[in-house]
Amino acid sequence: MTSGFRARRHAAPTIEPVRSRPRRVAVAGVALLGLVLAGCANKGPESTFRPEGKYAQKIDNLARPWFYIAGVVGLLVFGVVVYIIFKYRARAGDERVPRQLHGNTPLEIMWTAAPAVLLTVMAYFTVTTVISVNKTAKSPMVIEVYGQQWWWEYDYTGPYAGIVTATDLVIPAKTEIQLKISSRDVVHSYWLPRLNGKRDAVPGRTQPMNIEADTPGVYMGQCTEFCGLSHANMRERVIVLSEADFATWAANQLKPAAAPTDAAAVRGAQSFAQRCSSCHQINGSYVDAAGKTVQFAPVDASVSLVSGVAPNLTHLMSRGVFAGGTYDLHVDGDPAKPLNRPDLEAWLRNPSSRKPMAPDERRGMPNLGLTESQIDDLIAYLSTLK
Ligand code: CUA
Fold first, then answer.
1. Closest by alpha carbon to 323, among 196, 150, 155?
2. Is the C-beta atom of 234 inside 6 A of ligand 1?
3. Can you tell me the mean pLDDT for 2-10?
4. Residue 102: CB partners within 8 Å, gap ≥ 6?
5. Does 363 sit in the ligand 1 pocket, CB within 6 Å?
6. Is the shortest distance between the CB of 225 and ligand 1 below 6 Å?
7. Does residue 231 have its Cβ closer than 6 Å to ligand 1?
8. How far is the CA of 363 from the centre of ligand 1 (A)?
9. Residue 199 Cα to ligand 1 middle (Å)
10. Which residue has the CA at smallest separation from atom 1 of ligand 1?
11. Ligand 1: which atom is nearest the Cα of residue 186?
12. Based on C-alpha coordinates, what's the Rg of the chain?
C-alpha cells in the first residue's frame, strides 16, 4: 500500500499543453475585439448616432466629421508607430547602436503646426455649436425636471401647469421644449442621447436644456451620475406625440381623478387613503367608509421621504412604465396595451425586492405588508387612474 502511494506521488507530472505566445495574443485580441464590439448597436435606443430634432442634429453635425478626422489621424499615428517598431527592432546578435538623430526643423514645425491648426478649427466649431445648442428659443414650452433617488419627475408650467408625471415625459412633436433640470437630493445627470446631450441635476441649481423632436415616438435616456443604490434603475422616456394627440393627453392630465364606484376600487381607494396618500399625491376624491366623498389631502411627504416627493399617481395609468422605468406598467411600456399585472402586484408585495432602495433611510417605497386581497383592491383602484 505504502509503496503504491509513493509510486503515485513520484510519478512524472502530466504535461499540460503549452499555448504558444502568438496564439494567446490572438485569443486576447479576439476577446478584446468582442468586448469592444459589444458596445456597438445599429439601432440602439440610446444611440447618439440617431439624432432627432435640431439640437441633437447640431451635435451630430459637429461630432461626425471630427470622429472621421480623428479616426484618420489615429490610424496614421498607430500605423507609423507599428511600422517603426517592427522595422527598427533589435535583432538577435546585432549589438550595434543605431544612428542617433537629433532635430529636424521642417518636421518639428510640421507636427506642431498641423495639430494646432486642426485644434483651432475644431475649437471654433465646438464653441459655435455649444452656443447654438444652448440658445433659448423664443417661447418654448417650459418643463421642470427633478431628479431624485431614484426616478425623475416632470412638472409642466404655463398653460399646462398642474400636470405632473414620473419617468414618462410627454411632449408634442415639432415644438421647442426647455427643460429646467434640478435635483431634490443628490447630484444626478439627465441624459437624452437622441435629443440633446447631458445636464447634471444639482440640488439648489436649475440648468436649462433644449429639446425638440420632429418624429413621434419614444426616446430613451437614463441617469448618468452615480447616485446610490438604484442609479441603474433611474431611466427616462420621452414620449413624443403629434400636436393633436398631445392636446388630448394634456386635457386629460389636467382633470382630477374621479371617485371610483366599483366596490373593489372603492375599497382600494380607502386603503390608498390610509396607507399610500401620505407620500403619493392624488388630485381627486374618493368615497370613505361612511359613504362621504372626500378629497385626498395635499401630501407633505417631507416627514417620510428625504426628497419630500413620491410620484404623483393622479393619472398613473396614462404612463407606460413604473418604478423609475424599471418595469413596464403596461405591456411593452405602451399605455394603450393591457396592464402588466404580475410586476405591479410583485411591486406592491415588496418594492425593495424588485428595485434596490433604502426605505429605512427614507429613500424609496417601504414594504407595506399588504395582504393579497388588499393588493387586488389597490390595483382595482389604481386601474381607474386613467
Ligand atoms: Cu440618479 Cu444616477
1. 150
2. yes
3. 47
4. none
5. no
6. yes
7. yes
8. 13
9. 12
10. 188
11. 1
12. 30
- The 10s digit of each residue's pLDDT in 254-305 is 999 999 999 999 999 999 999 999 999 999 999 999 999 999 989 988 888 8
pTM for the predicted model, two decimal places:
0.85
Confidence of residue 47 (pLDDT cuts 50, 70, 90): confident
Average pLDDT, the chain: 92
The answer to whether 321 and 166 have CB atoms below 8 angstroms apart is no
pLDDT digits (tens, 9 = 90+) for 295-305: 998 998 888 88
Residue type, 238: V
The C-alpha cell 509503496 sits at 3
Across residues 329-354, what is the average pLDDT? Answer: 96
Quick count: other Cβ atoms within 10 Å of Cβ 14?
5
On whether the CB atoms of residues 232 and 324 are closer than 8 A, the answer is no
Nearest to 286 by CA among 276, 371, 166: 276
> CB under 8 Å to 25, separation ≥6 — which residues?
none
324 lines ligand 1 (CB under 6 A): no
335 CA to middle of ligand 1, Å? 25
CB neighbours (10 Å) of residue 250? 17
Q: Is 185 in the pocket of ligand 1 (CB under 6 A)?
A: no
Find out whether 231 and 223 touch, Cβ atoms under 8 Å: yes
Q: Which H/E stretch holds residue 239?
A: strand 235-241
Cell of 339: 396592464
Q: Which atom of ligand 1 approaches the CA of 227 most closely? A: 2
